[in-house]
Specification:
The structure is a single chain. This protein is mainly β. The chain has two helices and nine strands. The strands form three sheets. It has a four-stranded antiparallel β-sheet with strand order 2-8-5-4, with no helix packed on it. Strands 7-6-9 form a three-stranded antiparallel β-sheet, with no helix packed on it. A hairpin with a 6-residue loop joins strand 6 and strand 7.
Length: 111
């Protein structure tokens, strides 16, 4: 499989043009890494993750599709142990297992 490196505006255009194509399954490297920078290599057949909260198998993730740092609130199924974190620009962050994480959302605040 040939890899194509996309950077900056080209990557942004590619992400927005493919958003409607669906969710890609997370690779082992994504599950092991807390944050994946969107400027990293994208394979020719890969589809970008959707913006915001999404599930990939048993993993809960938050994909921030913007150029600024934003605060994200993470909800748990139990309602206890919820937290906020600062999502870096163009980052895909692993939040934990879908067994414990129910949702995550942008709070409207920067950080």
């Amino acid at each position: 499989m040939r890899k194509i490196l996309l950077h900056g505006a080209v990557l942004t255009a590619a992400v927005f043009s493919l958003l409607g194509a669906g969710v890609s399954s997370a690779s082992a490297a994504e599950r092991e890494s807390t944050v994946v920078n969107a400027s990293q290599a994208v394979t020719a057949n890969a589809r970008p993750a959707p913006c915001g909260f999404y599930r990939s198998g048993s993993n809960a993730r938050y994909n921030h599709c913007g150029p600024t740092f934003v605060e994200v609130h993470v909800d748990t199924w139990s309602g206890r142990g919820e937290w906020e974190f600062c999502a870096p620009p163009w980052s895909d962050t692993w939040l934990g297992s879908t067994a414990s994480i129910s949702w995550a959302y942008y709070t409207g605040r920067g950080c």
